[in-house]
Amino acid sequence: MIHQLYEHEANPAVFLPGATVANTNQRRVLYLQNPDQGKYFSNIVEVDDGGTRSYNAIVLSVQRRRARGVTVQGNYTLSHCIDTGYTDVI
Fold this sequence. Notes:
Elements: E1 2-9, H1 29-33, H2 35-38, E2 45-65, E3 71-83
Antiparallel strand pairs: 1-2, 2-3
């Protein structure tokens, strides 16, 4: 199991009617809660090491040789990856 960084925006802009790129900071959560103090904060990225990644794989191979020179061979591969870390910061 591998520990990986997990990032997310702690002060996202809320989509409201009339939302534009020009008024992104006025739509952020902290600004909407307290406009006097919230205007001093823009992007806040929270990072922790709570993400995990696990990868398991198995490869099986069977080979049977016959006396007459005929070979039967089969392969099977199974892999599985679980990943809880992600980022929504662009």
